Each structure stands twice: as C-alpha cells, then as structure tokens.
Amino acid sequence: MRRLAVAVLPQPREEPTHPPTSPVVNPSGAWQFREPQQPPPERFGGEPERCKAFLLQCEFVFKQQPQTYNSDDRRIGYVMGLLKGRALDWATAVWSGDSFPSRYPVFADEIRKVFQHASSDQEPSQRLIALRQGRKTAADHSIDFRTLAAATSWNDAALANLFLASLSETLQDELARLDPITQLDQLVRTTIRLDNRARQRRSERPILPGNPYPRQGPSPRREEQQSEGSEPMDLSRAGTRVSTEERARRRTTGSCFYCGRPGHTQARCSFRTRRPVENNLD
User: Fold this and answer.
1) I want to staple 257 with a disulfide (CB 3.0 to 4.6 A). Which of 79, 106, 139, 266 is the partner?
2) pLDDT digits (tens, 9 = 90+) for 195-206
3) What is the pLDDT of residues 75-94, one digit of tens each?
4) pTM of the predicted protein model
5) In the 3-class helix/strand/coil scheme, how is 219-243 assigned residue by residue?
6) What residues does the CCHC-type domain cover (predicted)?
C-alpha cells in the first residue's frame, strides 16, 4: 500500500531550462559572444572643431565591437561611410590616387593632419586665458572652462586663479567677501551657487508700475565709470583724488565710491549731488 500511495502522489514537475541568450553556439559548435551594438557617430563633414571627437567615437565603436572591425579595411570602410561634404571629397581624391593608406592608424593620422590641425589659430591655453563669462550663467561658463582646461597641463591652483579672473565683475565682488578658494572644484561649486542665488533673487524682485524691468543698483564697475564730475574724492582734503589703495578699500568694504563713507552708494551720495545755491536776485 505504501508503494502504491507513493506511486499515486503527483511528482513535482521540472521546469524547462532556457539556453542563455549570450553566448550562442554557431553551426560549427564554437561559442560566439554577441557584441554590444553602438550607435554610429554623427557624420563628419570636415568641421575642424569636430574632428577629434569624431575619431574618438569611431575608436570607441572599434573597441566595443572588435570582432566586427578586426581589420584595417573594415575600420577604414566604417569611417569612410560616415564622411560627407568636403571630408568625403578629400577621401575620394585620396582614394583615386596611389597614396591611399592601407592601415587605419595612418588613415586616421591623415584625417587629423588635414582637418584637426586647422581647428584653431590659438592653442587651448591661449583660448583659456581669453575666455570670459560674459552673459552666460556660471554653470555654462564652467563647462566651457573645463573643456579647454582639460587640454592643458596647468595645475589646480593656476586653473582656479584663471577661472576667478574669467568671471563677471559681480561674481568676483561676491567671492571677494569670502575666504580665498584655491581649489578649482570648490571654486566652481561656490560660483555656481552664488550665481544661481543672485539670478533667483533678481527674478523675485517686484516690478514697479511703469517700469517693465526690476531696478538694479549700479555695480562697482559702473561707479568707477561715472562722469568726470563724480570722480572719487578725498573729502578730508578738498580737491584731492583718492589713491589706488583707497579705491580698493572702498570697493572691498562696500563704502561709497565717491566720499568713502559706508551706508550708501555713489549714486545716492549727498556730497556728490550737493551743489552751491546761487542767489539770482537782481
């Protein structure tokens, strides 16, 4: 009876096992791994500023798919299929001649020599020195700065000083109130935070009736560029202009750039607007 009960009880079913999708077996019995599919780079038309990035993307595809592009002919054919415009015209002219390279590294060097060499009249370091924030946000400016800085060999302290000099006058004034920052990453984070806060504050200002734009006070740079009649003066000595050190002190402490006293700006300085009252009695 015990044997009969065991025979009657349902036996557990074995779940079918599915073969793995990768690797797969070809008819010859050898194992083959499926290579990851990479989207092709954007077609290259000979733009000097895109040459380096285009070849880098092609190299990445070759490394991801070594079995597909396992020969120089396949790599050259892949790059040739992505050329257009004057880049394709150049490759066609070279192909028609007798000096077309048969090895991919030589072919890639020829592309660099023709297109990448003429990318700019200035070296990355010179372009980095001339870079200025302008009307860009601090975040956008930092991207441009880091892109150029990556092509230089300058140390972190030098890059931090150069980044500080490339900022707008307003942000430089805000950073002057803080302790000096010598690390580029920290300086970039602080600058972006200050810039975002200032832009948010300007957007929250109420718009007065009849004035479509929020009122913004004059910046220290504007105060320095006032008319000749508002030249910074030393009131302790009438008619004497202030020294360079005194200018720096007034800018750092936020004092009036005209009279040197705190609590107001040059635009609202009573000493600058004070004029002698003329007696027009006949």
Assistant:
1) 266
2) 999 999 888 877
3) 999 999 999 999 999 998 88
4) 0.46
5) CHHHHHCCCHHHCCEECCCCCEECC
6) 256-269
Nearest to 266 by CA among 241, 231, 216: 231
Helices vs strands, H then E, count in the chain: 13, 4
Tens digit of each residue's pLDDT (9 = 90 or more) over 138-150: 999 999 999 889 8
Residue type, 236: S
Query: Which region holds residue 239: left if phi is over 0, alpha if psi is between -120 and 50, else beta?
Result: left
pLDDT band at 253, cuts 50/70/90? confident
Rounded CA Rg of the chain: 35
Query: What letter would DSSP give residue 44?
Result: B
Token pair 């504050």: residue: 201
In sequence order, what are the residues at sequence separation of 6 or more whose Cβ sits closer than 8 angstroms to the Cβ of residue 41? 54, 57, 58, 61, 82
